[in-house]
Amino acid sequence: MANMHEIAKMAGVSLGTVSHVLNNTAKVREPKRTRVLEAVKASGYQPSQLARGLRRDTTNMIGMIIPDITNPFFPAVVRGAEDMAFSNGYRLLLCNTDNDHAKEIIHLNELRTYLPAGLIVIPSNFSDLTAQAESYRRAGTGVVCVDRLPKNWSGDSVTADNEAGAYNATRHLLQLGHTRLATITGPLHFTNAKERLVGFKRAMKEAKLHLSSDYTQETRYDKQGGHAKTLVLLGLVPRPTAIFAGNDMIALGALLAVHEAGLRCPNDVSIMGFDDLDLAETTNPPLSSVSQSGYQLGATAARLLLDRREGDIGPAKHIVLETVLNLRHSVAPPPEAAMGSSSMKRRPRSVQKRT
Amino acid sequence: MANMHEIAKMAGVSLGTVSHVLNNTAKVREPKRTRVLEAVKASGYQPSQLARGLRRDTTNMIGMIIPDITNPFFPAVVRGAEDMAFSNGYRLLLCNTDNDHAKEIIHLNELRTYLPAGLIVIPSNFSDLTAQAESYRRAGTGVVCVDRLPKNWSGDSVTADNEAGAYNATRHLLQLGHTRLATITGPLHFTNAKERLVGFKRAMKEAKLHLSSDYTQETRYDKQGGHAKTLVLLGLVPRPTAIFAGNDMIALGALLAVHEAGLRCPNDVSIMGFDDLDLAETTNPPLSSVSQSGYQLGATAARLLLDRREGDIGPAKHIVLETVLNLRHSVAPPPEAAMGSSSMKRRPRSVQKRT
DNA sequence: CGTTCTATTTGAAAGCTTTCAAAGGAGTCG
DNA sequence: CGACTCCTTTGAAAGCTTTCAAATAGAACG
What we know:
Chain A is of the alpha/beta class.
């Protein structure tokens, strides 16, 4: 591929002039200017991002570190980030950590040597990000945390309003008449799991309902966990009539367990999810869930990074995105209340409630 | 961050020696060797990938170009590729094209300037990849096509055995007694859609069944398309008793349409999908589908790329991965046949059939 | 036309590695 | 001890861009 030297020769100008034309970094008078542009077009020249990055001390790559692209919540986040990045001339370097803190460190250390424009990170378990990010920031590279925060994080972040989302979802269950509400949380060392639990408890407290410790179970954010913990909950006496799941994967496992136990959802047990993944629409019954936009999360994080890069120097920003309660058919009044109620009324496919 | 000069100074050796120690590119005698290693450890030095790439004329990045990470089939492919890449010291630069051929070209042109170790591409609509790949190959950069092939592709590729998968799925439907089989294909300019249709037709022909042209519909690989075309199919007289969907998203739309039309799946209409996405397990009823491993697709492609890089110079390889028919509850014998049959028997959760 | 000033243009340096030819050192043999 | 060989080590060049100081060209003015 052609390099700048050749362009310079073709256009009969010096190296510096070519660079100035390409980067608008100095005025170049007319005859030369077009000659350069034409040479570029004719040769299909594109500047080497490597050489450019080396010289400028920064590239147009954004490093994105996530637990696992295979987890259905993350693709939207990545896509949101990629779209915002791409339309501003940046590219995404994707790294999966599997929530493995050692793998995260490998990525953080290596990414540095690419001189990325910034980092978007969904931190792993027990992430060491706070320390590492400090060194990035000293080098002038922004780091934004998304979805959940590592210990002592004081930098930029974009998260959903987990507490409000959980609170509203729980209130909805309470308003339907449930009094025996249980919750299956994600791993409580994740800030998002913790916040959702706080929201849940706040709603319970407001309703002056006691929460037996059996009624809150903690597990991994997956179907297996949801399944296992639901079996535990269903074995309790008295049995909960509603389960607030820490995310949709847990809810999915819960749904499965309820069916396996020979119970019906929502008739016997209501199930509420969190995330509102695409699959929530197609489960049986369709899942009610707290909707958060992964796409917005990612796009906002990338935007924040770009703003920083364009000179926005200011205190750390903690952007919190609203959630929406998306009601489908997996929640209904509790069995006793349902007797006399109108549970057989025609139900709309899906209803949204702002939270 | 420290650079090689500092390491050299710290260890009291020359620049070249540091490089030799780091790359094992020449024997370095003992006292110096350890001094270098220690200096590296003490300073946390990591070589600049930019400078290294510039000098070596190639980096450890693999460019991965896919239509849309948000489409549930692709994350597994990406993950497979990333795992294989990561464990061999390579990293993934991810690009979404939205099947937009212009966007694909932008990515192909720009990626070149990163001097990537190779490219893994799921080509977009009307992809121009064949021409572009030629120029990559001239530069010694491998390009592997995954999942489907662009026009006139003669380079390396990794795909599923779409035809056999479709053939076996169709045969299964035939064996259940269906005679009115319809299919909703993906866009037929995609090789995978075309191959699946060929497999379907081959099975039909073997069964000596006539295929009315109404009975094959083409649409985009998504839920909306599946929904719309299913409504068309259900309006035909006589109505098909089984629908072979070009992929699971189409099948999902079909499922929806069947329910909306007041029919039951599988009692009135059997539905067979392709891909066997995670969500196939949780639809209502759980979807029977031709299972192909996206993960294997991606991992195999990355492996192929690395082999090439390590010197495997030989004719183009076309790796074709087997599929497995994964039977769940969305297929059953046709209504007439079901009358006297044992459709009420207890059904296992899921059954696999090698294809 | 000569000066002076401003606007363009240039060439070289720098950014960090790898690699190659050359220099240096150590060991062997006579 | 000298010559020779072979193994280590070195320093400089190259890879491609950006950027800065310096040089040149052009314009305005007298």
